[in-house]
Amino acid sequence: MPIPVLISMTRHGAELARGLIAAHDLSWHARTDSFDAGDVMPDHVFDKTVPHIQDSFAAGFPVIGICSAGILIRAIAGQLADKWAEPPVISIADDGSSVIPLLGGHHGGNMLAQMLAQSTGGKAAVTTAGDIRLGVSLDQPPMPFVLADPSGAASIMARLNDGAPFRLMSDLPDDHYSGIAAAWHDWLAPMSRQSGIKPSAADAEISIILSLRPQPSSPQALVYHPRLACLGVGASRHCPPDEMAELVSGLLADHDLSPHIIAGIYSVDLKADEPAMLELANDLNVPLRFYPAAQLELETPRVAEPSQVVFDEIGTHSVAEASALAAAGIDGVMIAGKRKTAHATAALAISPDNVNQGQNSTPRGQVMLVGIGPGQSAWRTPEATAMIRKADELVGYHLYIDLLGSIAADKPRADYALGQEEDRCRYALEEAGKGRNMAIICSGDAGIYAMGALVFELLDRDQSDGGVSDAARRVAVGSAPGVSALQAAAARSGALLGHDFCTISLSDLLTPWEHIENRIHAAAKGDFVIAFYNPVSRRRRVGLAKARDILLQHRPADTPVVLASNLGRPEEQVHYRTLAELEIDEVDMLTVVMVGSSASKCFQRGTGKAVYTPRGYAKRIDENKHNT
Fold it and tell me: How far apart are CA 18 and CA 32, in angstroms?
């Protein structure tokens, strides 16, 4: 669970917060001017309460508000979508008398509320029936246990709450599994103490089972599997995903093992971008992690079938077996020896009692291109927020990262100045090559005049040709679309992009002016609505004037022009001009200049001007008018 955010809004709340952070690992966020100076100060200060709560919740942080439950409920109501993924939300009374888990009780919220109540001297108002009656949340087992079929848990839990007799069953062999079996029984022990019902085989209606084997779904049973197994896999390049899936399925079936016991998939780092492995991990819903060949080579004395051919190729005598054993640890035991097909190998080892599983392995790193729009949270997509939440580090121009506010408050960041675009992309890619999740923060959309193209250009080049390392070239790349300036300007001013349009950057820093001028001529002849990005800078003032003069050769002097800057921010400005009136001194580097086509219109409404570009419905409207 991420470090919970403790939000205070009053001076009384601030004093309570100081006591709580002294006893618990919490990040204290306080509203401006709501706290007095002291030895302990807030980790973060905010101005607007509701947006701050929303940003913290969207970022995946457990939210603890020293406030009424209603404030929290109203703040996050519109964001609720997935109970399995959302963080806990807890309300604490200003005097600490009540601690109420509002959401995520089975995701640590109830336990956290009880811990906080012990510190405040108040009462934790836990309302989930399972916790009250049974003392455990059967649908949320602790690691390393997994519930095979969660869909039937609610009805069985209801029957148990009503006093149905049950029995505990386990088929785990004594060797290697004694500690895990004991942990399972310890987890379930409160059921008997709290409900007063003793596990009994004689009259049991419900079976609660711990097993390594596949078990059929039943309305009379809850089946749990211990995730102890480390699956090692190897593959030739472009191994068919179906071939690898069938290999693993056969390996499990031959040893009567459930796929739910697999805790993770492991291989050599040269295979970090192998599609068959990525698809297998996705299908099994388990992590995929990697070891360098040199580390796998250390496992050779424990490998049953070392291969000189493999060693000559990549520097280790084994991939599948060595990966499984390395992940299972020094005391790991092979429970399903290597099987192979034409293009794939697989082996399965267990980590006894879940000790040091996957130690020193790394995941496939990822570069996430995050378009944040103009910066305000209301215009940021949920996908962008999820990427920011997932990131190990934020990379970008410092102003763009600052715009994220509280969602970035506890994130490591690498700030770069304007002009250091290549440096920031290289850094993000190379760090991702080490297994990290790196988010490159871009204003607007990352694929529109931003870092997206540069990232892919570096990936497209060999390292000897100015590209990035082989490890960096194997990373995953994802992109979250953002609201770009032309979209925001069009939305704020009317519907100027109602028909064909294009964008042209007037910056000649990387593109020769003659190329830019050719594009302006082509767009002018094509009668496109044009969004001019980077219209001016401190040293570059003539390009926009040249563009205006070229356009005046092709469209009327009264063609609508929109000058929009700082869109979606408090200092937002939108001005309306005609093409003939366009003056360069009205424009700065934060302005997007939108020039209409010859068909675009500007008209006055009661609340101000509006511009639009007709799509061609006039003929139909006129026909309907005459028919009427």
Answer: 16
pLDDT attached to residue 249: 97
pTM assigned to the model: 0.83
Query: CB 441: neighbour CB atoms within 10 A?
Result: 32
Residues 105 and 215 in one domain: no
Query: Counting Cβ atoms within 10 Å, is residue 155 exposed (0-12), middle (13-18) or buried (19+)?
Result: exposed
The three-point CA angle 327-330-332 to 5° equals 65
Mean pLDDT of the chain: 91
**Residue 439 structural domain:** 365-483
Give kind and range of the element (H or E) at residue 242: helix 241-254
DSSP letter at 318?
Answer: -
CA 449 to chain centre: 23
The mean pLDDT value for 60-86 works out to 90
The answer to whether 317 and 297 are in contact (CB under 8 A) is yes
Inside any domain, residue 459: yes
From residue 252, how far is each of 150, 168, 267, 337, 357 by CA, in Å? 22, 25, 18, 11, 20
Two tokens, residue 599: 């068909």
pLDDT interval class at 560 (50, 70, 90): very high
Q: Which residue has the tokens 């529109």?
A: 448
Q: What is the mean pLDDT of residues 197-201?
A: 63
DSSP state of 521: H
Measured CA to CA, the distance from residue 531 to residue 490 in angstroms comes to 10
Instruction: Determine the straight-line distance between the first and last CA of the chain, rounded to whole angstroms.
Output: 65
Backbone dihedral angles phi then psi of residue 341, each to the nearest 5 degrees: -125, -165
Name the nearest CA neighbour of 188 among 203, 204, 167.
167
- Give pLDDT tens digits for 165-190: 888 888 888 777 888 888 988 888 88
138 domain-assigned: no
Residue-wise pLDDT for 46-55, tens only, equals 888 998 899 8
Specify whether the CB–CB gap between 91 and 69 falls below 8 A.
Answer: yes
Please indicate, yes or no, if residue 624 is contained in any of the structural domains: no
* β-sheet with 145-147: strand ranges across: 145-147, 221-226, 206-210, 166-170
pLDDT tens digits along 593-604: 999 999 999 999
CA–CA separation, 91 and 70 (whole Å): 9
Burial class (CB in 10 A: 0-12, 13-18, 19+), 387: buried
> Does 25 map to a domain?
yes
- Helix (H, G, I), strand (E, B), or coil: what is residue 442? strand
Answer for the pair 233, 280: CB distance below 8 angstroms, yes or no: yes
CA 91 to chain centre: 26
Answer yes or no: do 375 and 478 share one domain: yes
Q: Which residue has the tokens 């005609």?
A: 578
DSSP state at residue 133: I
Q: Which two tokens stand for residue 138?
A: 């059967």
Residue 346 belongs to what H/E stretch?
strand 344-350
Strand order through the sheet with 601-605 = 494-495, 608-612, 601-605
Amino acid 466: pLDDT: 95
Predicted local distance difference test score (pLDDT) of residue 199: 64
Domain boundary pick from 342, 362, 382: 362
The length of the chain in residues reads 628
Q: Residue 576 in contact with residue 562, Cβ under 8 Å? A: yes
Pairing of β 206-210 and β 89-92: unpaired
Judged by DSSP in three states, 345 sits in strand
Bridge partner residues of 350 (DSSP): 229, 333
For the chain, helix (H) and strand (E) counts, in that order, are 21, 30
pLDDT-derived band of residue 131, with 50, 70 and 90 as boundaries?
A: low
